Amino acid sequence: MLPMPHQSLQAAAVPVQRTSAREQAGPWHSEAVCRRDEAGLFFAPSKEPTAARLSREQAAKRVCARCPVLVDCREHALLQPEPYGVWGGLTAAERRVMLARRRRRDTDAVQPAPVSRIA
């Protein structure tokens, strides 16, 4: 579309949104392997014993490991952030650690290195 004569070119510019082939085919979660599995595998029942939780989480991670949209799912869980369940092959605690590492990395990248003085 050409800008009208009274519009500036800058105002008429619209950023092009690029989508991957997967996004064009449909939302990433439509391809998720977990859509065919029991939801209880990915979310803890109330008052679940520790041994049962660890076993269930490992089983959920095995499902995630064979999923074609693992990376998309993990990014979704980190961007939201999802406070419960196994998402993208990570537990809620593992996602909190990953988010903390990203924040630390991003903070370190923004801050200038300290200047050392030679006397």
UniProtKB/TrEMBL annotation:
One Pfam assignment: Whib
Keyword Metal-binding part of the UniProt annotation: yes
Record note on modification: The Fe-S cluster can be nitrosylated by nitric oxide (NO). Upon Fe-S cluster removal intramolecular disulfide bonds are formed.
GO CC entries: cytoplasm
Residues annotated for [4Fe-4S] cluster binding in this entry: 34, 64, 67, 73
Subcellular localization: Cytoplasm
Residues covered by region (Disordered): 1-29
Swiss-Prot/TrEMBL GO biological process terms: cell redox homeostasis; negative regulation of DNA-templated transcription
Keyword Lipid metabolism attached: no
Cofactor(s) needed for function: [4Fe-4S] cluster
Family named by the database record: Belongs to the WhiB family.
Name this polypeptide is given: Transcriptional regulator WhiB
Organism: Streptomyces carminius
Phylogenetic placement of the source organism: Bacteria, Bacillati, Actinomycetota, Actinomycetes, Kitasatosporales
